[in-house]
Amino acid sequence: MAEQPLNDANVVAQDLLVTPAELKAELPLTDAARETVVRGRSTIRDILDRSDPRLMVVVGPCSIHDLRAAREYAGRLRRLAAEVDDTLLLVMRVYFEKPRTTVGWKGLINDPHMDDSFDIEAGLRAARGLLIELAEAGLPAATEALDPIVPQYLGDLISWSAIGARTTESQTHREMASGLSTPVGFKNGTDGSLDVAINALHSVSKPHSFLGINNDGRCAVIRTRGNAYAHMVLRGGSRPNYDSVNIALCERTLSDAGLAPNIVVDCSHANSRKDPALQEVVAEDLTGQILEGNRSIIGMMLESHLNAGKQSIPADLSELKYGISVTDACMDWDTTERVLRETRRKLRGVLAQRVAA
Length: 357
Fold this sequence. Notes:
By secondary structure, the protein is α/β, with parallel strands linked by helices. Helices cover 37% and strands 14% of the residues. Strand 4 (160-163), helix 6 and strand 5 form a beta-alpha-beta unit.
């Protein structure tokens, strides 16, 4: 019998990566960028603590695939953020990793050239470079924490993190989130169940010890103190769950579990039935609930790009249409502006009263 390998039987290569420390030295955090991140995190914590009355809005492309389009979007969002700042805290959605149900493009970090070459080091450089630009421009960033190694490379530039519906139940992601320096939102399960997110919120608030890497890229036992600013994100399931009945049910479930009734609502995904145009309807409903006295809705999420819809990745990348998502379909910029301006118009002067009450 031929000798069989005991290790790496299905591994064809191992490519060494730049360490987090090396990448940070190459693309350092500037003083202006640091101030944006510190201010963004602090403001979101204040919103969760109810000492800042504003509504957090995480808004931006489903995923980043074109840096030029991302920069243009960021420039528009920064101007709008200044306009609505008295009522809304705008945080740009900057998602570099995409969980796949089966296979598909896994995001800018994993496949920056969109050709299955998986030049991950180039992806990490592109992602860190963009985040520095956004932070230097004064725009806080939000992302999904998917790969547990990536926060060592990019975590110092993120103001808010999400744990997706597919990974909320994962022990690995709960442990990772317990050590994240950002407030973190856990989405309800893909079936709409709140139980997995409730369990995650309890878990992430506690100390954990787990295997990871340190800033020098060495394997280490990571020991955390727990994340006190984890909260619920409702994204729908087999049916939407943003209506007042589901919000009240979520409030009661959180209260019964001894958790703060802080709820962010994802206006896309199952809540919009995968129709980006319906995100506006969801946002209007949430605004109406707040006007009617709701105090638990502290934020919402919108998938938005320069242009509406989505596109498949063509074999010839020159055929990609500018400013259109290659993952989930998004609303266009004009709709985004209208939704956020109208939300601000209706809630201006109301949110402060809600906190005071």
